[in-house]
Amino acid sequence: MNSVVIIGSGNVAQHLIKAVEKAPDLDLVQVFSRSHSGLKHLVPQEKITSNYEELKDATIYLICVSDNAIPSVSYALPFQGKLVAHTSGSVTLQEMSTQNRRAVLYPLQTFSKQKELDFTKVPLCLESEYETDYEILEKIASALSHTVYKIDSTQRQALHVAAVFVCNFVNHLYKIGNDICDEYDIPFAILRPLIMETASKITVLSPNEAQTGPAKRNDTTTINKHLNGLTKPNQKELYKILTKSIIDDVEKL
Amino acid sequence: MNSVVIIGSGNVAQHLIKAVEKAPDLDLVQVFSRSHSGLKHLVPQEKITSNYEELKDATIYLICVSDNAIPSVSYALPFQGKLVAHTSGSVTLQEMSTQNRRAVLYPLQTFSKQKELDFTKVPLCLESEYETDYEILEKIASALSHTVYKIDSTQRQALHVAAVFVCNFVNHLYKIGNDICDEYDIPFAILRPLIMETASKITVLSPNEAQTGPAKRNDTTTINKHLNGLTKPNQKELYKILTKSIIDDVEKL
Ligand SMILES: NC(=O)c1ccc[n+]([C@@H]2O[C@H](COP(=O)([O-])OP(=O)(O)OC[C@H]3O[C@@H](n4cnc5c(N)ncnc54)[C@H](OP(=O)(O)O)[C@@H]3O)[C@@H](O)[C@H]2O)c1
Ligand SMILES: NC(=O)c1ccc[n+]([C@@H]2O[C@H](COP(=O)([O-])OP(=O)(O)OC[C@H]3O[C@@H](n4cnc5c(N)ncnc54)[C@H](OP(=O)(O)O)[C@@H]3O)[C@@H](O)[C@H]2O)c1
């Protein structure tokens, strides 16, 4: 049975703790957290440490800390030659200390402590410094999720940017929808079915086939009506540039 | 029992035909279509006409044609004093002919003929010229969907813009995610769970609470890494302006 130590107590760490505990083929040995407080509901006290020197032996150490802390945490580990993976989309393998066998297990999903999700459906993007470690990494990842991909550093970087577009930027457009509803005294809930359907549509159509709306039709009457109606400068600017980007795409076809 | 005539044979018309046929309290009297061909699988031949003069009596006539054709179709109707509603988010009530009792039944959803959906979950936004017609309109709408809202022309205009942001523009961001995946030989399917979760998250969190990512954290290292990695000018420009819009929002809090 493969054993796991998780370092961190944030969004990803907490989802991973639950996922490891659920996986019949994995053993959660220990969790490292600077502050124990946030983990009490998830892990028995004796499995939590805030002292690197107390870290126990495990097949893999998963560093689930803020991107900028990954290098220093990797250097703080008091052992050598062990398998150590971070979970970041944007940190390279090379930024970790060479004292251990470096790897990446990047879960391509948006995690918040407050929102439950089924970890077995989270795509896991794997990379390992040594070819021989890939098999172990894959076995551990497959115990956590049904979808596992081999993704190198360049691809992972690209995926992370793609994720910013389809998650962070998309959410910001939801926020703008919410702002417009507030301005006109409309409950935001009215937009939710449209938001869900827009996301679910691309499971049967490509985003290209699914594109609709005034920009796609180059319907300048409606576009101008909308631009005149928008009162906030950032909304106007985003409307213009996104419309232009859609029109340019159509013209390229 | 209220009776319905549907004018048009496009995306909305086809979904409405199925919804009316399913509703026990509604009777589909007839469908008007310039070209019969696209409706054969949905409606018996004798219920289809391409001649306005042949239109039968009904409680409501639903004009489901392209926005720019709504006025001319409303003028082409050979009768007077009947309840006539269009289904557009952006056309005002005033753009229709005064010869009939004007109304709007705007389904706030994205429809494609190829994609099935549960019409009872589509929010219907209602408006009527005469107060006395609102009750009839509401009864018909409630037979089609569980969520019905009274929305005036100004609100509907605003909602249509909001819908462009959370549907058309969001889909364009999916398209960019797809383009990036293609460029780096990554299957687009890897992004689908993230896309679904991002949409489903705002059923439990507000878009403001759900916002994450480098822009939200003002993580300039990652932002610059991403900007350097992007090769297409439109992707770079959208990345910059969306990042700025998120940062400005955070600063306003
Ligand atoms: N959230 C997501 O949606 C998501 C998705 C995919 C990948 N990731 C990646 O997963 C990693 C963790 O993200 P997250 O969202 O879980 O972050 P988070 O919720 O902000 O948690 C960050 C964790 O890092 C710890 N930490 C920060 N600096 C530290 C240091 N110098 N030494 C030790 N621990 C330190 C924090 O400990 P304290 O509580 O003691 O401060 C906290 O437990 C990041 O690399 C991120 O890029 C996140
Ligand atoms: N699709 C959506 O997601 C959606 C959502 C909410 C509201 N709406 C609104 O619903 C309405 C219809 O949209 P749609 O997506 O169903 O459009 P569509 O699929 O493009 O279909 C347009 C229909 O209009 C007919 N038409 C166009 N010009 C006409 C004319 N001069 N005389 C008679 N018929 C004419 C077309 O007939 P032919 O086939 O004979 O050309 C076709 O049946 C629009 O007002 C739109 O704003 C659409």
TrEMBL record, chains A, B:
This is Coenzyme F420-dependent NADP oxidoreductase-like protein. Pfam families: DUF2520 (PF10728), F420_oxidored (PF03807). InterPro entries: 6-PGluconate_DH-like_C_sf (IPR008927), DUF2520 (IPR018931), NAD(P)-bd_dom_sf (IPR036291), P5C_Rdtase_cat_N (IPR028939), TM1727-like_C_sf (IPR037108). Residues 123-246 form the DUF2520 domain. SUPFAM superfamilies: 6-phosphogluconate dehydrogenase C-terminal domain-like, NAD(P)-binding Rossmann-fold domains. Transmembrane segments: none annotated. Residues 4-84 form the Pyrroline-5-carboxylate reductase catalytic N-terminal domain.
